[in-house]
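for the recovery benchmark. tokens below, seq after
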């Protein structure tokens, strides 16, 4: 390490201040002992084995071990008090201070327990942001690793042994409070998720707002119930088809098998997506990127129930080629495939009038009749009712989960009276806006907790924590 890097590292670790009396600047090479002791795991089948995936990033917690007898490649032997440092990027913040004897992946640098250094003091230093930032910059290669030689000259603030012990105690006391706060945030996040699910469940089952049947009875008036609404939708669909396809036979869309479905409120009826479409489902088109051509959305345009029209690329096709795939306001798009079952079939709505842009083959376009509120469909699409249907019908090929048009057409959805749909949408949006604000606050406080964690370590190794 050059003198310039030494000076810079000292400034990063001390904020430009001198170290407290009794502290000295040294280097990792002088302060630690990273002696390697490679061994064959088959010679120690009784010892636990720690892999890179067994240590949680940032928190330095051990998540588990496996028997060494299951391993075939050579490993590092470690003992209580040794510190394991993950040298493989992006795991440069995976650090663990062992309290048992075992074997570790060769992707760890094992720092031996030495008498002049409290192991946890070293552990926290290796996990501090300044050090992680430095090691992240000096790694190279397809699977970049850092060697000890690359970090050997890194400046290390060495406190007197009793003070190291006090610093470790203070760090852990602060981290305990942060962990408690973080656990509280996690509980709140889980509660908000459950509440979100309950709101969507209520929207599906008809107990979120007063039903149209209840209001009509109180007000002494008639109303168009779901059965009548569906009959009108199907007749309008039939008439449109006959006008546009006079020489073709009309096929009535299939309804849902109602056996086993939840009981709906008075005035509601079950329908399939196919029954309430204004036109057939349509896949987009796969288009390679180009410097010149016509814009097409990326799959990443689908975000949190919305279509981000800025997520696009230039495709190698003309405006005329893209004409049948143009995006319109009110279109609803469904993801055809994803490596995660949780994400396949997610939907997004085009909320604003778009400029000229097409949609890709990774999305299916859904255009609904005006008698089915598209905002209501968007609210339903993230409910457990819809997710269960999608996830049970999705097929996996080469690790990718996929659904097709037939799967989407057969999804059954509740059909309330039109006026009730609008009231449900308004109530869903009101409640979800509160949930969104609370979730944003939780996320901000999670990030703040992470920053506080690093601020504590920075103060600790500048000699200002105790």
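predicted aa per position
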């Amino acid at each position: 390490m050059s003198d310039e890097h030494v000076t810079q590292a000292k400034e990063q670790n001390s904020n430009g201040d001198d170290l407290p009396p009794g502290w000295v600047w040294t280097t990792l090479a002088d302060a630690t002992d990273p002696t390697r002791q490679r061994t064959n795991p088959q010679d120690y089948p009784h010892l636990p084995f720690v892999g890179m995936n067994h240590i949680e990033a940032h928190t330095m917690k051990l998540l588990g071990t496996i028997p060494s007898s299951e391993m075939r490649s050579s490993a590092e032997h470690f003992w209580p008090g040794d510190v394991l440092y993950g040298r493989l990027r992006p795991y440069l913040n995976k650090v663990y201070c062992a309290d048992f004897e075992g074997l570790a992946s060769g992707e760890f640098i094992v720092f031996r327990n030495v008498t002049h250094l409290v192991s946890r003091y070293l552990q926290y230093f290796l996990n501090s942001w300044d050090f992680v930032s430095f090691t992240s910059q000096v790694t190279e290669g397809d699977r970049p690793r850092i060697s000890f030689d690359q970090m050997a000259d890194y400046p290390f603030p060495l406190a007197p042994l009793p003070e190291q012990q006090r610093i470790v105690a203070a760090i852990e006391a602060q981290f305990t409070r942060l962990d408690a706060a973080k656990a509280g945030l996690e509980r709140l996040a889980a509660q908000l998720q459950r509440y979100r699910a309950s709101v969507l469940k209520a929207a599906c089952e008809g107990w979120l707002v007063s039903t149209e049947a209840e209001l009509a009875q109180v007000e002494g008036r008639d109303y168009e119930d779901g059965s009548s609404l569906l009959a009108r939708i199907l007749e309008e669909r039939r008439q449109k088809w006959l006008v546009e396809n006079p020489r073709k036979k009309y096929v009535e869309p299939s309804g849902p098998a109602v056996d086993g479905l939840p009981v709906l409120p008075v005035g509601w009826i079950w329908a399939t997506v196919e029954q309430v479409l204004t036109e057939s489902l349509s896949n987009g088109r796969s288009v390679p990127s180009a410097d010149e051509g016509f814009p097409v959305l990326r799959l990443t345009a689908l975000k949190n129930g919305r279509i981000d029209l800025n997520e696009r690329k230039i495709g190698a096709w003309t405006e005329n080629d893209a004409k049948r795939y143009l995006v319109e306001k009110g279109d609803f798009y469904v993801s055809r495939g994803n490596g995660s079952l949780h994400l396949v079939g997610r939907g997004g709505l085009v909320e604003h009038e778009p400029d000229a842009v097409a949609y890709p083959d990774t999305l299916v376009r859904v255009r609904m009749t005006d008698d089915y509120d598209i905002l209501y469909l968007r609210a339903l699409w993230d409910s457990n009712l819809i997710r269960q249907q999608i996830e049970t019908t999705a097929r996996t090929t080469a690790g990718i989960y996929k659904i097709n048009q037939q799967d989407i057409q057969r999804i059954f959805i509740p059909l309330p009276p039109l006026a009730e749909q609008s009231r449900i949408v308004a109530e869903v949006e009101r409640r979800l806006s509160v949930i969104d604000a609370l979730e944003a606050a939780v996320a901000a406080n999670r990030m703040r907790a992470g920053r506080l964690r690093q601020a504590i370590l920075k103060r600790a190794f500048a000699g200002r924590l105790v």
